[in-house]
Amino acid sequence: MLVTLEGIDGTGKSTLLMALREKLADLEPVFTREPGATWVGESVRRAIAEQIDPITEATLFVADHAAHLATVVRPALRDNKLVISDRYSDSRFAYQSVTLEGVIPEPEGWLRAMHNGWSIVPDKTFLLAIPVDDALERLAEKSGREHFERREILEKVQDRYLAFARAEPGRFVVVDALMEKEELAGFVADAIRQMVAHGRKQKRK
Ligand code: TYD
Questions:
Q1: Which of 62, 107, 140, 188 is deepest in the core (most CB within 10 A)?
Q2: pLDDT in tens, 140-152
Q3: What is the pTM of this model?
C-alpha cells in the first residue's frame, strides 16, 4: 500500500512524519521521500539551490521519481510493505505546473503525460492544507528559503493541490494543518491503520 503526504512548504509535514514513525512503528512502514536519497535526488537539490532553468528542474524531479520508484517504492510494494512517502508525483503536478507557467504551453498536462505508463498512483494521499500566511510564518522561523517558498507561488501551488483533491476525492484526504499536532498525527495514523486493516481483510476474501 502506497500512502503519500503532500502540501505546500510550511504545513508541518516533517513534524507529522516524525509522529507517524512512532505511532505506526508496529506496522513497519517504509518511510521515504522525494526528492529522494539517491544521487539523482542530490542533483535535484543542487538544481533547486542553483535555480537552474525550470524545464531542467522539472525533468530532474521526474528522473528522481523514476529512481525512487526503482530503488525504493517498487521493491517495497512487491514485498507487500506499507510505503509512506513524504512528497510524490502530486508535488510535481502542483509545484512544476506553477514554475512552468508561461514556459511551456500546458504544464500540468505535460507533467502528467511524463508520468503516464510507468509511475504508480498512490492508494491514499493526505494533503495538509493551511492558510498561506500561516505557512509563511512557519517558514520564516527556518533559514535558507528555497525559491518555491514565496507567497505568490505557494498560493498557486496550494490552489492546484486543492483542485486535485476535488478531482480525486477517493484518493485525497484534505487535512487541516492548523489542527493541534498530536490530534493531527492521531487522525492520520488512525486513517492509515484502518486502510491497512481493510486491505488485509480484502486480501483474505
Ligand atoms: P523538500 O525536500 O520536501 O523540502 P523541505 O524538506 O526543504 O521542506 O522539497 C524541496 C522543495 O522541492 C519543496 O519546496 C517542494 C519542491 N518540490 C517540487 O517543486 N517538485 C517536486 O516534485 C518535489 C518532490 C518537491
A1: 188
A2: 887 666 777 789 9
A3: 0.95
